[in-house]
Amino acid sequence: MTYFPGIDSIVYEGPESDNPLAFRFYDRNRLIAGKPLSEHFKFACAYWHTFCNSGGDPFGAGTRSFPWSSDGDAISNGKSKMDAAFEFMSKLGLDYFCFHDYDLIDEGATLVESEHRLMAMTDHARDLMHSTGIKVLWGTANLFSHPRYMNGAATNPDFQVVSRAAAQVKLALDATMRLDGENYVFWGGREGYMSLLNTDMKRELAHLATFLHKAKDYARNQGFQGTFFIEPKPCEPSKHQYDYDAATVIGFLQEYGLDKDFKLNIEVNHATLSGHTFQHELQVASNAGMLGSIDANRGDNQNGWDTDQFPNNLYEITEAMLVLLRSGGLQGGGVNFDAKVRRNSTDPVDLFHAHVGGMDLFARGLIAADRVLQSSPLEAMRSERYASFDAGKGAAFERGELSLSELHAHAISFGEPAQRSGHQELYENILNRQL
Ligand code: XLS
Ligand code: NI
Ligand code: NI
């Protein structure tokens, strides 16, 4: 059975192609910085947005009717959806997918029933993965949709809910490991608070750390070698989320001894919601050696929520790819399209346009960023700004060898420092020329 009739495999046709269902830049085997584009990105489909979200919003019902069955029992519906998902990913040349436990299948009435359903779905997924070669970039547990988590999951003030969340994470880890998932994500949807009046923040954070340690220990004991990622987000659904941004998460991981096993999954729209740029968040993660994975999407400059639109900003993505190339790439992760087509994009082909655009954009940005690094003066100019630390007293300062008194004596020796321009507009022009 075909779920997306009339749509063939999407192939690379080059920048001159007029075919909307072709790649202009994403030539998967093209080598950039010694690595094929497909390996730089490890593009992944977000199961939830593409196969579960029918376009409902707070003002109205879903608008998309899916071509797979929803008339049968949970398992047969889940299998039909999964068959369609693998057809979709195969046609697009997406090598990976990411899932929440209850994207694959509706949650059962009990934990035991949910476990049974997840086993059935992972069996089916293993067959499809085997025949297509598609892999799992990461799995995760949905610890935010069910009403039981309204006061948080790992940070819930009620131990019964914390324990229930732990049980769910165990099953999600089991499912991820059965599918040879390369990584596992924690996004703290409701790990945060609305009011300090009823919240013991210090205690909740300690519970979160213990929870993460136990999840990590369980997976490691089962032989899981992948990386755990925390996905920072500042707000929505909680007013204050504990994983506010990259710097906050890094501090938390270091404080609680989790920094060896956990890295970061940086989402574009979460970065902008936190008042930072995407490239800033990537750089902060990279500085700490924790740049693990990317959730690709974008927000909207005129409103302040997680609109999860497909990425389309070449300038932003090129700047981000500069950070990526300088960091030597993602550690374990890839580029997951955590994005949804708009509510009025109702044709199945719109899902293809969205992903083709996103994949092409990242490829184009990476190619441009590589040109900036290889054949523009930008890197040399940036190094030159710091040249005064390369030798003499500046180098001694970097090595920590100058006391404050020695710095004082040195400052007296030369008087007022000469003014040195930052040339920001020139740097911007250099980047622009390579787009
Ligand atoms: C929501 C998050 C979510 C995570 C996975 O804003 O981006 O989709 O990526 O739970
Ligand atoms: Ni995300
Ligand atoms: Ni998000």
Summary of the model, kept short:
By secondary structure, the chain is an alpha/beta fold. Helix content is 46%, strand content 10%. One nickel (II) ion is lined by residues 187, 231, 267, 295, 338.
Question: Can you give a write-up of this model?
Answer:
The chain has helices at residues 37-41, 47-51, 74-92, 101-104, 111-132, 159-178, 201-221, 246-255, 268-273, 278-287, 314-326, 348-375, 378-385, 392-398, 404-414, 424-433, and strands at residues 31-32, 35-36, 44-46, 96-100, 135-140, 183-186, 192-193, 227-230, 240-241, 262-267, 291-295, 335-337. With 435 residues, it is of the alpha/beta class. The radius of gyration is 24 Å and the shape is globular. The mean pLDDT is 97. One nickel (II) ion (NI) binds at residues 267, 269-270, 306, 308, 338.
